[in-house]
Design goal:
single chain, 327 residues, alpha/beta, ten-stranded mixed β-sheet, five-stranded parallel β-sheet, 10 helices, 30% helix, binds threonylcarbamoyladenylate, binds magnesium ion
Length: 327
């Protein structure tokens, strides 16, 4: 399907799945409530979980938001287009269906040539959550987006594998104290350097991003996450992993000698960029192969830019089933 055809379908109120630099998204024309409602139905997404709007260009902001705070301007200058979603006070033009009745709206300007072309051709905002069934792992390949959504009668654009592999960071700029609602590829440290002051991370006790409340990113099997240094993790795996387990490993130590099915998330211990790129591929592969017992390693690189986002996703994907060997 060419991009113009996809844009025409969106204009007509159909859903289109498209790649971005983070994960695949499932989009609908934001101004069409019937189309937006279809997203909730296709994903099985709770109606109270708001959608983010995708725009091709910053000039589209004006009609969607009430005001553009100074902090948001700095963040857009530094990180747009890119994996940063910013929450503003919404204008009357944004439907309550998109924002689940909230007075704020989240906006993102993706950094991907195909997405940019698509959004430009549509010419107005496209509401798009991640392209997965609600609760299941996000998708980062055409194959996995198709596997989850092919029965749903939506159009899926093949944009290959997404480069970042993790969803955008979501920041709330509706108040003077800017807060991270969802950690992502852009780290707390990068945000603080850009703004020149401290930002807070949302605590579980005072959730304001509805998506944080729900079970997320989870494969169908039971996921165990093992954090530690390479030696600690390997010792644990050789002692505890049964041959029935499916393994997600860092390094090539299992090559040629594992009787368990496994995938290598990254070869080098400190390459969390590649790890992040492969994470949802691994979790979707676990579902494809009907893995029931999954053990996934994570190097304890707490200072790494992506660590907080990875831990957030793995915490949810495993429902908190994380063993920290490094404490
Ligand atoms: O990288 C991404 O952000 C991907 C790609 C497709 O752009 N999209 C994505 O959308 O991850 P979704 O719907 O899976 O996650 C958006 C998150 C949800 O946790 C949702 O609750 C939160 O953003 N959110 C959306 N609008 C909000 C609002 N007005 N206030 C607070 N949180 C909001
Ligand atoms: Mg999602």
């Amino acid at each position: 399907m060419n991009t113009q055809d996809a844009a025409d379908r969106l204009q007509k109120g159909e859903l289109v799945v498209f790649p971005t630099e983070t994960v695949y998204g499932i989009g609908a024309l934001a101004s069409n409530d019937d189309a937006v409602q279809k997203i909730f139905e296709v994903k099985g997404r709770p109606q109270e979980n708001p959608l983010i709007l995708h725009i091709a260009d910053r000039s589209q902001l004006d009609e969607l938001v009430k005001e553009i705070p100074g902090g948001a301007v700095k963040l857009m200058d530094a990180f747009w287009p890119g994996p940063l979603t910013i929450c503003f006070q919404k204008s009357d033009q944004v439907s309550d269906l998109v924002t689940a009745g909230l007075s704020s709206v989240c906006l993102r300007n993706p950094d991907h040539p195909l997405t940019h072309d698509l959004l430009s051709r549509v010419g107005s905002a496209v509401a798009a959550p991640s392209a997965n069934i609600s609760g299941r792992p996000s998708t980062t390949t055409f194959g996995h987006a198709t596997a989850q959504l092919k029965e749903k009668g939506v159009h899926i654009i093949d944009g290959g594998n997404t480069v970042l592999g993790l969803e955008s960071t979501v920041v709330d700029c509706t108040r003077t104290d800017i807060r991270i609602l969802r950690p992502g590829v852009v780290s707390k440290d990068q945000l603080e350097k850009c703004l020149g002051f401290e930002v807070n991370e949302e605590h579980i006790e005072k959730i304001t991003s509805p998506g944080q409340l729900l079970e997320h990113y989870a494969p169908q099997g039971k996921l165990h996450v093992i954090i530690g240094d390479a030696t600690q993790r390997r010792e644990w795996i050789s002692k505890h992993a049964t041959s029935q387990a499916t393994l997600g490993v860092v390094g090539t130590h299992l090559e040629g000698q594992s009787i368990s099915p496994y995938q290598v998330l990254c070869e080098k211990e400190d390459n969390l960029k590649i790890y992040a790129q492969n994470l949802y591929q691994f979790l979707n592969w676990c579902d494809e192969t009907n893995a029931t017992d999954i053990i996934l390693e994570l190097p304890a690189l707490r200072e790494h830019q992506l660590y907080s986002a990875l831990l957030n996703r793995l915490n949810k994907a495993s429902q908190g089933n994380i063993l920290n060997l490094d404490q």
